[in-house]
Specification:
The structure is a single chain. This protein is mostly beta strands. It has four helices and 28 strands. The chain has a four-stranded antiparallel sheet, with no helix packed on it. The protein has a four-stranded antiparallel sheet with strand order 2-3-4-5, with helices on one face. β15 and β16 form a beta hairpin. The longest helix has 48 residues. The radius of gyration is 34 Å and the shape is globular. The protein starts with 13 loop residues before the first helix and ends with a strand. About 20% of the residues have low confidence.
């Protein structure tokens, strides 16, 4: 049985018992105890006697949080600087546009707003004396320079005051520093600000590099220093992609289904782990290929069309938790693996996928929704292995295992050219400086890389390659990358080296091979703003290589 309820006691003075209430007697008649007071002294001593190991672990946990926040702060500052540079460029372009139209008349002033006849006059015209049916409250005399107090009517509601804007944290100009549980990129802006029919892209001046192909000797790069770190993946690596907005950020994917975000530091050089996200499809399929959105805030992955599985996922770096990964509901591919995804270098936000069902699919973003359009399905007789877009016109290049290279004019809705070569094609890559030059990776030993000019249709400009010592077959998992100046090509290989090609060299062999890993190298990626190559390998490591 519980204690019987205690009766209320009268309130006493604190001077009597050093408490606001009289102590409550216990149910068994023993000494009275306080009804509401501090716990016994023994319990206080027990609570204060915390374990030293627990405090040390707590300090270590907060130290890790501080280091993580410092890395995120560096990333935010870089993104902020890039955004401010783009804003300044847009304002300068707007000023130039307005200067070219001197006859442009300014917009007429807005018409005066009609006042409500029943509304009270402004305070400056209002009689300071109160109306006869309303008594003014007694007030002290105030200086004549102060404005009169306006007393609203009974049906007048005061306008709500806007909430004060929070002050920015020290060290940042416009972006607040993230907490340890925040996402890795700045918070998501309102959709009303993000909606743009067309994004602005930097217009590059095309260069004529084709005229110098095979016309001189190779210029060898000097590699000095480098680091190799664990990739944090448990199975073989599959993809390595560079952020188009901030090339200090790279993402990797592997057969364990995770997509990992990294930050590269030019000093050292070194690379730091930022986050890891589970990107397995609903049918537990790993990403086959990845691509950054041109805005640098999302990463898209493609999977397989078998078993009704989701075909495309979108990882939004602005959010965290379960909403970070979104699977697009559309499933246009009919069977097999989706081998490649590539964003087009155009003003419209769109990307193209090529699959084992021989189809090339164009995906477009409209009102925050992604819709698809089948570009063609019958032009390839085998799996489409690579897709790319030309920068100076809306032409989609596609290559496949059927040895075909097809250029499809999206504006005209027809094929612009077709090319049939002597071996299967596994990827295609356009040159960043010469818009007419593109590279196709093939399966021919010694001539793996072929250079073509879109103006010459079926004419091969140059062929490059290497002799593999560990294997004679060419894997489709091996990929290439163009240097920022367009003169060099890097390629992985079944041997643990990175092959570097200079397209000006009149020979076919690599101008140099860099020892980088212990096992097969899948890809070596050139950074755009500092002289560093980042590579991935089947030894589950990521390599950072500095050159000059």
């Amino acid at each position: 049985m519980g204690d019987r309820p205690a009766l209320k006691r009268p309130k006493l003075e604190k001077d009597d018992y050093d408490s606001a209430y009289w102590p409550r007697p216990s149910s068994n008649g023993s000494a009275p105890t306080a009804a509401s007071g501090p716990p016994p002294q023994e319990e206080d001593e027990d609570e204060e006697a915390l374990s030293e190991e627990a405090v040390v672990a707590l300090v270590a946990h907060h130290e890790r949080d501080v280091e993580r926040c410092k890395l995120k702060l560096l990333q935010y500052q870089s993104l902020l600087d890039t955004a401010e540079t783009k804003l300044a460029g847009a304002r300068a372009q707007l000023a130039r546009y307005r200067d070219t139209k001197p006859d442009r008349k300014p917009p007429p002033p807005p018409p005066p707003s009609k006042r409500d006849p029943k509304a009270p006059p402004p305070p400056s015209q209002r009689d300071p004396r109160p109306p006869p049916d309303q008594k003014a409250p007694a007030r002290e005399q105030q200086p004549a320079s102060r404005p009169q107090l306006v007393i609203p009517g009974p049906n007048t509601r005061p306008a709500p005051r806007p909430a004060p804007r929070p002050e920015p944290m020290p060290g940042l100009k416009k972006a607040a520093a993230p907490s340890s549980s925040s996402s890795l990129v700045p918070q998501e802006r309102p959709r009303a600000e993000e909606k743009k029919p067309k994004r602005k892209i930097e217009e590059k001046e095309p260069q004529n590099l084709i005229a110098s192909v095979k016309k001189s000797s190779a210029k060898v790069l000097k590699f000095s220093g480098g680091n190799v770190v664990s990739s944090q993946h448990k199975r073989k690596l599959r993809c390595l992609e560079l952020c188009p907005v901030n090339d200090q950020l790279v993402v990797t994917s592997a057969l364990d289904g995770f997509v990992t975000l990294w930050q590269v530091q030019p000093k050292g050089p070194s690379i730091y782990f930022l986050s890891k996200t589970n990107c397995f499809s609903p049918k537990q399929r790993w990403p086959e290929d990845m691509a950054w959105h041109p805005d640098g805030d999302r990463v898209f992955s493609v999977y397989s069309a078998d078993g009704g599985d989701s075909q495309v996922s979108m990882m939004n770096l602005n959010v965290s938790g379960q909403k970070k990964i979104t699977f697009l509901p559309e499933k246009p591919h009919t069977k097999g693996i989706i081998n490649n995804i590539s964003f087009m270098p155009w003003s419209d936000a769109c990307f193209v996928t090529g699959g084992s069902d021989h189809a090339v699919i164009l995906w477009q973003e409209t009102d925050d929704l992604w819709t698809f359009k089948r570009v063609h399905k019958d032009f390839h007789s085998s799996a489409v292995m690579g897709v790319a877009g030309l920068q100076h016109k809306k032409v989609i290049l596609s290559v496949g295992c059927d040895k075909r290279i097809i250029g499809f004019d999206l504006s005209a809705g027809r094929t612009e050219f077709k090319n049939l070569i002597d071996t299967k094609c596994m990827s295609v890559l356009t040159n960043p400086c010469d818009f007419n030059l593109y590279m196709v990776q093939t399966g021919a030993p010694g001539r793996q890389l072929r250079l073509f000019d879109v103006r010459l249709r079926q004419t091969e400009v140059h062929s490059l390659g290497w002799k593999q010592e560990s294997s004679e077959s060419q894997s489709a998992l091996i990929n290439q990358s163009w240097s920022p100046d367009g003169w060099y090509l890097s390629s992985g290989s079944a041997d643990p080296v990175i092959h570097i090609f200079d397209i000006r060299h009149n020979g076919q062999n690599p101008c140099q091979s860099v020892q980088a890993h212990q096992k097969r190298v899948f890809k070596a990626l050139w950074h755009q703003t500092f002289p560093i190559l980042t590579s991935i390998s089947s030894d589950l490591n990521i390599g950072i290589h500095k050159y000059s």
